Amino acid sequence: MALKPISTDTRTRSSIQISIVVGLCCFFYILGAWQRSGFGKGDSIALEMTKHSADCSIVPTLNFETHHAGEVGNVDESEKPKSFEPCHPRYVDYTPCQDQSRAMTFPRDNMMYRERHCPREEEKLHCLVPAPNGYVTPFPWPKSRDYVPYANAPYKALTIEKAIQNWIQYEGNVFRFPGGGTQFPQGADKYIDQLAKVIPITNGMVRTALDTGCGVASWGAYLWSRNVIAMSFAPRDSHEAQVQFALERGVPAVIGVLGTIKMPYPSRVFDMAHCSRCLIPWGANDGMYMKEVDRVLRPGGYWVLSGPPINWRNNYRAWQRPKKELEEEQKKIEEVAKLLCWEKKHEKGEIAIWQKRVNDEACRSRQHNSQANFCKAEEANDVWYKKMDACLTPYPDVSNPEEVAGGKLKPFPERLYAVPPRVASGSVPGVSVETYQEDNEKWKKHVGAYKKINRLIDSGRYRNILDMNAGLGGFAAALDSPKLWVMNVMPTIAEKDTLGVIFERGLIGIYHDWCEAFSTYPRTYDLIHAHGLFSLYKDKCNLEDILLEMDRILRPEGAVIFRDEVDVLIKVKKITAGMRWDTKMVDHEDGPLVPEKILVAVKRYWVVGANSTSVQ
């Protein structure tokens, strides 16, 4: 659906009309509250609204609590909205770009069939993905780390397959996660304690981590209490719902695989990368997967490999694998690590840890190595659907042997508002130190306004949060709290690629094109933020498709905050009127004459078979 630009006069006129509506809604709500006041709920509502009667940015008719719905405010009801029907119940866990039936039509070489393969235009569903029967709001963090309601992901296979490894247990109407894993059946905490003897996990210098082949993400779940945020990924494969369990637990995760395409992350962004029996053939294809990990690993960062083939001499019997095969596997890994100029810091039991050098000064000899094929430096962040190559990503230049290539970071949480090295060095066109600091102040103000609109933002009600157009990460930084995490998305069509800056703040994120489905399960996010997204994608793809994808990945009774031009938001509001969402338009915090407005929405609670016929 192409959106036609409107004149400034029209935009201002629409802005004023909406302001009048919002103001009247505030006035009549307060009046109605006093009229209902007497015995019961009306008194408390009236009192609360009277306290804030001068602040009509508060949304009085949306209920953000669970198992309640709000009322729809009216802006322009001249056209009857299109009504979207529920999808067939078989789509309850539909992942469009990782659909199992479509995946099986692709080659299995290098895990190609587990990569993203999105539906063609004529194959797209134009319906609402339902929640399963009995679906409930997940437990608040930290209880969610250990318990997931059975109805939300009713799959028991892992409780049998991984029973002795303490991944997951079924107990009545919940799954319990004891914190174990294939490589750490005694618990992730003890395992992390072992790593912390070598890696400085406790001092804030290791903040961002990558977990490849994460299982149910217990490693990432238990790193959280140590102020480390892990981006976990695993394919949608025979281990049914492993990433879905991670997300239901409130742990950052996406569906992903190391295959033939580069990982959707910038270069030099993770402080630590990890593989615990992840079944990735690290030495194969000229060490291509290790070289890809090196690309995303920050200078001075750590790579942890636990399980086969580490220390194969002592473990080959327990693994039930031939000694020669394991010996050759470890030999290839060691050779690639040497080529990458990683320094081996530790090998004990089944754990090995390497550290990437802080710069290229100690690795000059590899420039004369015939096996050292270097990638083009300008292509280090060009990753979306780009073929993975077995080449070495060059370090940024340094002026002395002690300098950290690309710049040294502050420890977290100081890192969150310190000037990121990519900004300080001027390596992001159009972003100066001044514009970065101004952006931070702007987002503190915006988030302050959001908290007035929705007072549950700070309460722990929203754990998994998505920012669909993250910019410099100001929204996530202003929200920073141990109760929540934000997935910062950098649209592939964004004017400025600032995802590296976001990581340098100690936040996490991913590249994505919103003309396609996101690499996650339905009902992943509690709160979605979309700033300028629909203006950005105007004439790029169908507005309706983006909104249906938002509905797919939003939990029942989850909330959405749109911030965009008023004419764009009016179109969005019309579409959402047919999506079982309740919405309300709110003025910009600087007043009614600002063309940018805020549209807030709550997705109603409904499940399979609720109140209407399914389609497709």
UniProtKB/TrEMBL annotation:
Membrane topology of the entry: Single-pass type II membrane protein; Single-pass membrane protein
UniProt GO cellular component terms: cytoplasm; endosome; Golgi membrane; trans-Golgi network
Keyword annotations: Glycoprotein, Golgi apparatus, Membrane, Methyltransferase, Signal-anchor, Transferase, Transmembrane, Transmembrane helix
Subcellular location: Endomembrane system; Golgi apparatus membrane; Membrane
GO biological process terms held by the UniProt record: methylation
Example GO molecular function: methyltransferase activity
Enzyme Commission code(s) on record: 2.1.1.-
Homology family: Belongs to the methyltransferase superfamily.
Protein name as annotated: Methyltransferase
Species annotation: Gossypium hirsutum
